[in-house]
Design goal:
The complex is a heterodimer of chains A (about 300) and B (about 260). Chain A is built from 11 helices and 2 strands. With about 300 residues, chain A is mainly α. In chain A, α2 packs parallel to α4 and α3 packs antiparallel against α8. In chain B, β7, α6 and β8 form a beta-alpha-beta unit. Classes of the chains: A mainly alpha (about 300), B alpha/beta (about 260).
């Protein structure tokens, strides 16, 4: 293992982790808060980047492009929400349907090409791989941290509002939510829209960071998102009880995920091609741990009387 | 005033499992009535409450509450008129949320939920007072997650939530059935206090005949989706369990056992 190469690769892993961490926060909203596993994100994780890059190369302002990317993501969430609530399709299937449809849409957005590059020399990108080891304000790590903090602040505020509380209640107990006059269908659609909007934001930043949008860039995104959520939960559930801190835990979980991947790659024990296999296995084991714990290692209850 | 007119409800129509749960039900509750409902399994008690709450629509007939036609109103829209407590203590509260957060959700029942803060400090004062009335010590644990509470505490809290904003009708669906007898009595005592204090129109389903007799000013018995017995006034006051058993030749095991 080449230590210098490893150390050189770490800032990139952190930046990538931070950007994917935004995406994982989106996954957290559906998977944890709404209790609704949403597979749309595999599609949205490309849609956001595609919309952002194509708009920027067409001459739009970067912030306008970013906003449109988020809106495109929210529309994808809206479609999944309509599939799920209005059409009664189970959530997982609804997400898979939208994800599949998005593949065609993403190709169309990209003008029929599998990918669309954007040059950091010609455009004023928010984040770029090239600046990852510079100690300037342009460093993507710095910029991603700002995005993460702002996003967590907004979500923390939102989930404390009446509307945000009704979202949490719906995810926790839909029967109770309806009995309290909450339109659970509306709230689920709203949650899916917010989540996919956040994912699209992450996607738009990722595309800028790597310098291109690719039709396959979202493949397996949900698994990475779940990995980050679970790592965050396993490591920080004891100390991070506040909602904002939990979201921060998710972001740190994504960073850890990318650091581990980077280290594993540097050891050259496995090749890049095998990454997704490894990721799937690791996430499967992490998901299984709570189940095994409950089944085999539950604390013995002392019999009384 | 609740008016149920000629309501029918069949489940699994057209299959071998077809079950006519409600069969031409007519029931009128006057304002301030505290009605206890008994009947065997499958008599249609819970179905009646679910029809009123809008969990599913009736096949035929109409349901009016005061000036409102509830018949085809979606569940979340009619929630503003109704307070509900379920049999399962897990169903009435959000376990991952705090006690005060649950109360704040209930305080906004039927109201528009916007981007205002989910709970205000003034509300907290009100909740603390109301929780203190339950005499369960919950007022000192306002931020605790509801999942940490016992079944009885959760039912008492659900009851408080259902009545925090005065409902036009309170629906209690065997809300003490999952509790041990002592806790059940305590929750029923709290129920009685709240109903009397706010003069609530109440429909309480129970499997316990003693409770059905002891509480409320009117007792109805359901059988095969209809009201077969309706006792109120003096007759209700003087009613004994033995009378019920003899008069109506009750042969349902579970009802006898719970006596």
């Amino acid at each position: 293992m080449n230590i210098t190469a490893l150390i050189n690769s770490l800032p990139g892993a952190v930046a990538q982790g931070l950007i994917w961490g935004l995406m994982a926060i989106g996954v957290y909203i559906t998977y944890k808060v709404l209790d609704l596993p949403d597979l749309t994100v595999d599609g949205t994780m490309c849609t956001g980047g595609a919309v952002c890059i194509v708009m920027m190369t067409s001459g739009y302002n970067i912030w306008v492009s970013l906003l449109c990317a988020v809106i495109a993501g929210m529309l994808a969430g809206l479609v999944t929400g309509i599939f799920h609530t209005f059409m009664g399709i189970p959530a997982i299937l609804a997400g898979i349907l939208t994800q599949l449809a998005l593949y065609s849409i993403n190709l169309r957005v990209l003008g029929g090409k599998a990918n669309q590059a954007i040059s950091v020399d010609k455009y004023n990108l928010l984040v770029s791989l090239r600046n990852v080891r510079k100690a300037t304000i342009e460093n993507p790590i710095f910029v991603s941290i700002i995005f993460t903090i702002v996003l967590i602040a907004i979500l923390y505020w939102f989930f404390g509002t009446e509307l945000g509380c009704s979202l949490r209640a719906t995810g926790c107990n839909a029967d109770m939510a309806r009995a309290q006059g909450i339109n659970t269908n509306f709230v689920k659609v709203l949650g899916l829209m917010i989540s996919n909007g956040v994912v699209a934001l992450s996607s738009a930043l990722l595309a800028q960071y790597q310098g291109f949008a690719d039709v396959n860039m979202g493949r397996g995104a949900i698994v990475i998102g779940l990995a980050a959520v679970i790592i965050g939960q396993v490591l920080f559930s004891k100390i991070f009880r506040n909602f904002a801190l939990k979201l921060l835990g998710v972001s740190i979980g994504a960073i850890i995920y990318y650091l581990v991947i980077q280290i594993v790659l540097q050891t050259q024990l496995i090749q890049t091609d095998d990454l997704k296999l490894l990721t799937a296995l690791v996430v499967a084991i992490f998901l299984a741990v709570p189940f095994w714990k409950a089944k085999h290692f539950s604390k013995k209850v002392r019999k009384e009387g | 005033m609740l008016e149920i007119k000629n309501v029918y409800k069949t489940f699994n129509a057209g299959t071998v499992n077809e079950k006519r749960a409600i069969n031409g039900l007519n029931l009128t509750l006057n304002n301030g009535d505290f009605v206890t409902v008994i009947g065997g399994n499958g008599a249609g008690k819970s179905t009646t409450l679910n029809l009123i709450a809008g969990v599913f629509p009736p096949d035929e007939g109409t349901i009016h509450l005061d000036a409102y036609n509830l018949t085809n109103l979606p569940e979340h829209k009619r929630a503003r008129f109704l307070g509900r407590v379920f049999q399962d203590p897990m169903r009435g509260t959000a376990a991952n949320m705090g006690i005060e957060e649950n109360l704040a959700l209930a305080y906004r029942r039927g109201e528009h939920r916007g981007l205002k803060s989910g709970i205000s400090s003034e509300e907290r004062k009100l909740y603390r007072e109301r929780l203190a009335m339950l005499d369960l010590g919950l007022e000192d644990r306002m931020t605790s997650k509801v999942g940490l509470l016992s079944g009885g505490q959760r039912q008492a809290l659900t009851l408080l939530m259902a009545t925090l904003k005065k409902p036009n009708l309170l629906l209690l669906d065997e809300h003490t059935a999952a509790l041990d007898p002592k806790t059940a009595d305590k929750v029923l005592k709290i129920t009685k206090e709240i109903v009397e204090r706010d003069n609530l129109t109440t429909l309480m389903v129970t499997h316990n005949m003693r409770h059905a007799i002891e509480y409320g000013n009117r007792l109805i018995m359901m059988h095969n989706g209809q009201v077969v017995v309706d006792i109120s006034g003096e007759e209700k006051k003087n009613l004994q369990v033995q009378d019920l058993l003899e008069k109506f030749n009750i042969d349902n095991d579970r009802m006898l056992l719970s006596e």
